[in-house]
Give the backbone structure.
Amino acid sequence: MKHVKSPSIRPSIFSSSQNQRPAVPPNQSFPPASDCISSPTAISLSVALQHYINSDFPSHGQKIHSHILKIGFEPNTNVSIKLLILHLKSRCLRYARQLFDEMPQPTLSAYNYMISGYLKHGKIEELLNLVSRLTFSYEKPDGFTFSMILKATGCASGGIFPLPYSLGKVVHAQILRSNVESDDVLYTALVDSYVKNGKVGYARRVFDMMLDKNVICSTSMISGYMSQGSVEDAEDIFKRTVEKDVVVFNAMIEGYSKSVETARRSLEVYIDMQRLNFRPTMSTFASVIGACSVLTVFEIGQQVQSQLVKMNFYNDIKMGSALIDMYSKCGRIEDARRVFDHMPEKNVFSWTSMIDGYGKNGNSNEALELFSRMQIEYHVKPNYVTFLSALSACGHAGLVAKGWTIFESMERDYLLKPRMEHYACMVDLLGRAGSLQQAWEFVMGMPEKPGSDVWAALLSSCQLHGDVEMASIAAHEIFKLNSDGRPGAYVALSNALAAAGKWDSVSEVRQLMKVRGVSKDTGCSWVGTDSGP
């Protein structure tokens, strides 16, 4: 990248108002817009528009645009751009785009402001169309333009709008070919884009090129490495980050909290950050509670809950749902219900956490009662996970009729098309109850091709009830879909054959495992002690 000054002005309308100097001192009243534009000039309009842009109610300045249109005043480029900013700050994308399209020759600043507006509102398709138009204009993209495009690739990776997988690399190549000034904003956008698209290796190359590695880039790299399980690389970046902030600590705490092998380190970093006078945030507490769930250490979870109360975070819906989930996984269902009952506000995630907790702790009747109450008394619409938790509760209790009712209500009452995991749950429900033939017919009648989870549920039921023939069919369907990814399927089939005394077939399955390089998962046990697992 060449270090060349870009001639364009960087948009700042979405930055903090603290960074903007008001056109009029805050202690002075501004004259009504009609007084300022009765005989409008470019200067008076610019000053009036800037006042509204800096105000808390920018939409009030839209009357200036109406007045301009009425009197037929032709704004210059400066006034047009300020009108564009005004509409964007007023969340009127349609008016902003209309004004942009009416500009005889939009400047790069106008393009950048419009692109920023589309990005802020998640209009990725419109953003890319505007970028395409920019490439055919007399203007050339600058570093800010490229950073916006890169941020769009990150948004698209979250499923907002599908983009070509290699778009980030294409943008990177364009940056290298152009005379764009390389700075922290652009480098950070590049690193973040690569990380969000799963290309942590490319992100590291860009990161290593940076002379001054800022904490934002370090945080992106840590998140990327943690998501891939590269804990040591994440730790290395963290140690080399000189100026740490609470966000980079949160990235480490969250990354550690995902695995039972590293969850205890999550708690250690949580303690360290407070020793260094960093105040935990909601994200911090969510990850720490998650670590307690993984480790099933409710005692530490109780201490975290006490801290939540002291910091006035306790009433937050996300924190309540996380605590419910933690206590449920620790087998403390009464504590989970106590948290649930004291939540001043509940949403579908809160209800789902409690229903799921009851189901997994063997309280199926309580789970289904809560599932009914959330709909009838509280008019909360269940989501896909809620239905999965309710179906699972039916499976544990052997409530086949109730399970059918819940399954059929998904699409009938809520227009939620059952997903593969819901079909698998129904097969498990029917199979556990001994209705193997009904489970088989259910699988054969599915509107889409059964996935490995569906066949695995059927295989497990066949093993439970000793149906070797159906077990063989289910197992071979799993092998066709994923020959080496589910060693449990080989073991389940082998056990079913062994139970039926078919030892020759058992030997064949075990030989097949050797040929395909499939190894049985090693068993392990976590024994709780006074110091935890």
User: Anything to note?
Assistant: Residues 204 and 221 are 7 Å apart (CA to CA). The chain has a mean pLDDT of 83. The two ends are 51 Å apart (CA to CA).
